[in-house]
Amino acid sequence: LSRPDGSEFWAELTGSPLHHDAPREGSVWLVNDVSAQKRAHEMRVAKEAAESANRAKSAFLATMSHEIRTPLNAINGLVHLVLRSGVTPEQEDRLKKVVAAGHHLLDIINAILDLSKIEAGKFILEHVPVDLGEVVAHVASMVAERASAKGLSLITELPPVPGQLLGDPTRLRQSLLNFAANAVKFTDAGSVRLKVLVLEDSPTEVLVRFEVTDSGIGVPPDVIPRLFSAFEQAEAGTARKYGGTGLGLAITRNIAKLMGGDAGVSSQPGQGSTFWFTARLDKQEPVPSPSPRNMAVDPGGALASSCRGKRILVAEDEPINREIARVLLEDVGLVVDEAEDGFMALDLASRNHYDLILMDMQMPKMGGTDATRHIRRILGPDRPPILAMTANAFADDKAKCLEAGMNDFISKPVDPDVLYQTLLNWLEPAGAPAKP
Question: Tens digit of pLDDT for each residue in 363-384?
């Protein structure tokens, strides 16, 4: 309907006839302005549609991640087996480049998943002890080879650490590595400096600033305002020359904001850049550190030495990945049985003794979490240890595995050393950790 001033509004009309004793026939109508209710309804519908689209996108990306990680696991696993069998130096070099390309593809997948989780509000930060020195040292080690190959000086600066800190060391490393890798990529001569500053220090928390300064090509002033937007590159020509998805900076800024900080850059074209992000880390009272798990220099050799002959059940529906797992385990002296789905895994676990079970999450007939629940119901909560070995890489996937009764989580593509070390942690007679 229209108001006297010509503006339109949504109305609810209610009519009733005049009483029979009225002087003339007719009806009475009430006009109720329901524009506000209409707008509220439209907003609810739009919100529900957006949430549904977000859920659909998250489900799609989770499925795509699983579908991409599964063949990547086969590619990397088969390359590893070929390398172990003995090849010429030229073949070894080419195969290692295949593995490097696979890791690069995995980094892209992880970046897309991270951005999706952030947009969906499902990005979960850990709250565990943080060693700033270890964070910086790890990142420096990751870029040292590339920096050395370009003749760059790699410098690190770390202040005295104000007490024991709590935060998410994995995401701090990821964010700092995003900046450091870009600095090395865009710098042809000079240096790259990784620096940590304590900006605020209160009794309960600290505000830490991480900086990466380079002597590279720099960033034009007109590009800086959009540099931290998803899928943005400094310019098309730069993107073609140096590559990259444009996701790393956007993810770093979002992670920094989730940690109570921010991210930014100061730069001059041709004179280098300083990329920075800040994060608030909680302090904790000094507590005795638990004895760390022994990290073997050669986890495969240690596993073969101390756990030879132990019996492992591998539940995996994909034949190539099942074959790779079997060969990797048999190479270190373990005895392997295979199950193609959750029902077969349940049947075998009920009839045989296994020292450990490796369980995929997504399998036909019965998935890994349901199979684990049934095994726990039959055999008890403690034995055997059940480890998820899955291409489902979301944090909530890990939570579902642990909730179902699994003891640990190995994501695909599987790094053989990570697999061996994890098995060693659970199989060593005197060193098996307590169930989470």
Answer: 888 888 899 999 998 887 767 9
Residue positions counted in the chain = 436
Residue 390 in tokens? 């899955």
Question: Is the full-model pTM beyond 0.85?
Answer: no
- Residue 140 is inside which H or E element, if any? helix 132-149
Integer CA distances (angstroms), 418 to 93, 104, 243, 298, in order? 22, 18, 29, 11
Q: Are 422 and 332 in contact (CB under 8 A)?
A: no
Compute φ and ψ for 428, nearest 5 degrees.
-60, 130
The amino acid occupying position 240 is: R
pLDDT digits (tens, 9 = 90+) for 248-263: 788 889 899 999 999 9
Alpha-carbon distance 230 to 53, whole Å? 19
What DSSP letter does each residue of 98-131 carry, written as one string? HHHHHHHHHHHHHHHHHHHHHHTT------EEE-
Return the closest-CA partner of residue 118 out of 256, 262, 255, 276. Answer: 255
Other beta carbons within 10 Å of 166 = 15
At 13, list the tokens. 């009309």
Strand ranges inside 178-271, DSSP E: 191-201, 205-214, 263-268
CA-closest candidate to residue 114, choices 223, 250, 3, 19: 250
Closest by CA to 107, choosing from 26, 206, 178, is 178
Residue 205, CA distances (Å) to 135, 208, 259, 280, 286 in order: 18, 10, 12, 7, 14
User: Each residue of 113-152: b (16+ CB within 10 Å) or e?
Assistant: bbbbbbeeeebeeeeeebebeebbeebbeebeeebeeeeb
Q: Which amino acid appears at position 264 of this protein? A: G
Give SS3 for 367: coil
Contact (CB, 8 A) for 401 and 371: no
Give tens-digit pLDDT for 380-428.
Answer: 776 799 998 877 666 667 778 888 888 888 888 888 888 999 999 898 7
